[in-house]
Amino acid sequence: MTLPSPTLLWFRNDLRLADNPALCRAAETGAPVIALYVLENAAGGRAPVGDAARWWLSRSLQSLGRDLEARGVQLVLRSGDARTIVPDLAHCLGAGLVAWNRRYDPVGIACDSAIKADLKATGVAVDTFGGSLLREPWEVKTQAGDPMRVFTPFWRAHQRLGEPGASLPVPAVLVGSRTPVPSEELASWGLEPTSPNWAAGFAEVWSPGEAGARARLADFLDAGLARYPDERNRPDLASTSRLSPHLRFGELSPVQIWHASEHAGAASGRAGIDKFLSEVGWREFSYHLLFHWPRLAQDNFQARFDAFPWRTDPAGLAAWQRGLTGYPLVDAGMRELWQTGWMHNRVRMVVASFLIKHLMIDWREGEAWFWETLVDADAANNAASWQWVAGSGADAAPYFRVFNPVKQGETFDPKGDYIRRYVPELARLPDSAIHAPWQADDQVLKGAGVRLGVTYPRPIVDHAVARARALDAFQALRGRDDV
Ligand SMILES: Cc1cc2nc3c(=O)[nH]c(=O)nc-3n(C[C@H](O)[C@H](O)[C@H](O)COP(=O)(O)OP(=O)(O)OC[C@H]3O[C@@H](n4cnc5c(N)ncnc54)[C@H](O)[C@@H]3O)c2cc1C
């Protein structure tokens, strides 16, 4: 008896078995399934997965590999150029079908289009699906059929399209290949740092993989959703879902989140679910922007910002990266990032504003640092958010809104617990001094063991002076035309 031609299932940003349309399609064929992950080469000077996210990827692939193996399917690992690896493997296996869930970044789209054309030209069928978003980025548009630039009407139009379809179960039956396919060893990819192992703290905080994602969602819906509208800006509390790295690698889909939240919402109340899903909506909006403006991570969305007089300040950039600016909330955020690969959204906004406005360093420097240090570093969310803070983006915060890091700390970390957690050299300061130690009496500093300029830096810029400098620079841009 001749076996049906196998199906090659290419995993990318969808490292899960549940609600995975490409996997369902592969299962439906009844043919043997061979799963593939390709560690792709750097493109445009940037690795497709940043340093901290590589740690996550390593753990997530281990988890996916185990889950597939338990169902008799091999996860084949290859590294290099997907444009040659995928067609070569498909031909070598005699695959009748290659299936994948789409991606939306320009490098990914160009690569996938080329592979699809190549496969089709050689008689291999290709099926692609939407699996990372609630709606495909081109589905939401203005009445004139154009892409949208403002979040609120975007989200309204998105919601008018109706509920997302049902979330797909893990296929009941998957057929694996009887013959093992040569695969590279995950360990040989060196995804996890060793000397030094700067990711040592990550495993204490995170459980990469589909099971970890599901558990985190369940915990949040149970304990966090009802409090989310009131507490989501508080970095000192476990106030948000922390699902972002799971979403980044597609261990969970937004469709699953949507249905689970709607289900839990009955008990938690409408306010929590609406606010939470609107944040997931910001992720949809970022992807919409990246899809329609593929140079979102490179070019100012508003061209008038091209004339902005960014400063070159290597010492300021290094102090910011290392969490040594002398502003406790900024330093706590940058150290949370270093220690855990993640940072609370409120603090992301404050540290980004500090880099862009207090130091007047180009937002692209910040975007690049986050790309390498965040476990959730995401081509769409990172670029759109940096441009949002800079004021150069679509529907962005106005440039003249300069966060005061002291006031932000007093409002959102009122007792200084978050600062104490990540800036331990300030831990013994009283609440009244922790947000601005340079304003404290000598006696207070001494009592807390703080020696400014020795155990903790003095502020590298004065807030009022830096604010005025940034506003002057912005004033000069006024009157220039937007894109
Ligand atoms: C300068 C800057 C850079 C950022 N870079 C990234 C990034 O690389 N990757 C990333 O996923 N998010 C990024 N964000 C957005 C946001 O900070 C994170 O998504 C959020 O902190 C993740 O935590 P959470 O999962 O607990 O969020 P929750 O508040 O629980 O929200 C649930 C989900 O909604 C989405 N979401 C929430 N807020 C936003 C937002 N403002 N924009 C887009 N999507 C959002 C995320 O997918 C998140 O997981 C950035 C924000 C800023 C200000």
From TrEMBL:
Query: Which keywords annotate this record?
Result: Chromophore, FAD, Flavoprotein, Lyase
Q: What is its EC number?
A: 4.1.99.3
Cofactor note (record) = Binds 1 FAD per subunit.
Out of the domains of life, which is the source?
A: Bacteria
| The Photolyase/cryptochrome alpha/beta domain, residue ranges | 5-134
Keyword presence, Flavoprotein: yes
Q: Which Pfam families match?
A: DNA_photolyase (PF00875), FAD_binding_7 (PF03441)
Known cofactor(s): FAD; (6R)-5,10-methylene-5,6,7,8-tetrahydrofolate
Positions marked as site (Electron transfer via tryptophanyl radical): W310, W363, W386
Q: What is an annotated GO biological process for this record, any one?
A: response to light stimulus
Say which enzyme class the record assigns. lyase
Q: Note the InterPro entries from the entry.
A: Crypto/Photolyase_FAD-like_sf, Crypto/Photolyase_N_sf, Cryptochr/Photolyase_FAD-bd, Cryptochrome/DNA_photolyase_1, DNA_photolyase_1_CS_C, DNA_photolyase_N, Rossmann-like_a/b/a_fold
Catalysed transformations (reactions): cyclobutadipyrimidine (in DNA) = 2 pyrimidine residues (in DNA)
The entry lists its GO molecular-function terms as: deoxyribodipyrimidine photo-lyase activity; DNA binding; FAD binding
Where FAD binds, per the record, is at Y228, T240, S241, R242, L243, S244, F276, D376, A377, D378
Similarity annotation: Belongs to the DNA photolyase family.
Q: Which PANTHER family match?
A: CRYPTOCHROME (PTHR11455), CRYPTOCHROME CIRCADIAN CLOCK 5 ISOFORM X1 (PTHR11455:SF9)
- The name on file for this protein is Deoxyribodipyrimidine photo-lyase
- Organism, per UniProt? Phreatobacter aquaticus
